[in-house]
Amino acid sequence: MSGTRPPKQAQPWSGLLPHEEVRAKVWNQVTSAVEKFITSVETRRVTPELAVTDIRRSLEKFDFAAPVSPAEALEFVETGLTEFQTHTPHPRYFGLFNPAPTAMGVAADMLAAVADTGNRQLLNRAAELNGSAALHLRLHSRTLY
User: What is the DSSP letter of 64?
Assistant: First the structure.
């Protein structure tokens, strides 16, 4: 016995990080959802009808007893965000000043999410070692406004 292990078999889904082909499908689905939202927001209501019962009913199928596919999870979130929230990017939204998202802002959020530099690090100087680039980018941008 030489003590060597057989190579691991590739799994279609490995914990929280799927393989490249699955990730590519996820990124394509997200990109399509973003484009669909941007191009259709003007056709939607600015504010949703308050439908707490409908929201809760839609959540019932997620009992965490079995996993759902990435595509199903993303579709669920896309539907929830388009049907059950106020659309601040809508041209007829005149509420509080909430600027519409920008393409570069969405791209930056995606990059920050991948690097796990969330707001907890952006706003916490003690996290400088973990999120140094994000922290200093945030501090720099504050000096510009």
Answer: S
* CB count in 10 Å sphere of residue 115: 13
> Is the backbone of residue 3 left (phi > 0), alpha (psi -120 to 50) or beta?
left
Burial class (CB in 10 A: 0-12, 13-18, 19+), 142: exposed
Model confidence pLDDT, tens digit, residues 30-48: 999 999 988 888 898 888 8
The domain locations on the chain are: 17-97, 102-145
Q: Give CA separation, 23 vs 10, 33, 101, in Å.
A: 14, 15, 24
pLDDT in tens, 54-105: 888 888 888 778 888 889 989 988 888 888 888 788 888 887 777 777 888 8
